[in-house]
Amino acid sequence: MKRTNAGSSQTEVPASCTALLEAPPPCPLARQTCGMATVNLQTQQRHYCFRALCCKGPPPPRPEYDLVCIGLSGSGKTSLLSQLCSESLENIVSTTGFSIKAVPFQNAILNVKELGGADNIRKYWSRYYQGSQGVIFVLDSASSEDDLETARNELHSALQHPQLCTLPFLILANHQDKPAARSVQEIKKYFELEPLARGKRWILKPCSLDDMEAVKDSFSLLINLLEERDFEPSRM
Q1: Which tens digit of pLDDT belongs to each residue from 50-63?
Q2: Which of 44, 159, 171, 175 shows the smallest number of beta carbons within 10 Å?
Q3: Has 18 been labeled as part of a binding site?
Q4: What pTM was computed for the model?
């Protein structure tokens, strides 16, 4: 036991508390003084501070989702994903096969498999769909009419593919910063999304590299859809 002065009297402090009382206060709450109450108050407060600092377990692991990202060459898939991963945009080149990026968010990690969008690669897209939990489709909203028609056909094909048709879709109308960019309303009408995707879970959002906060918000909406899917009852 150790005797501790508190005002004009003394109080007995258990030996098990001596080290904690003699150590520097771990937080400002433990610095209060009020006569006889000081020892008990400090001991209790230091105990709570010690537990908060040293006994708090690691945060629970963030859920991970496997996504496939598709779109024509030049739609901006690689640049958007690189920006989300805080990577440099210098020397960015179009993906010729596929690449995988782990895109971190506060409440989830998205493992995004980006597939190249060249003519000779798109016919192999379906080989990489297996295991996907969601789809990101990026289109160039300022592209030519021919390219927009091709993008429309590819999106329709993806929405109806047996391995993707039940998954959440995030459709990004990219390059909104360009003068020739079409609005989201124009894209929705031209791509016939309302009749084609009726009953499916999809999000259509405008985006550009100039407003990455909006891009992150769009991905957060996709994460919400993925989380909702996790809680759906299993279908027999």
Answers
A1: 555 555 667 778 99
A2: 44
A3: no
A4: 0.74
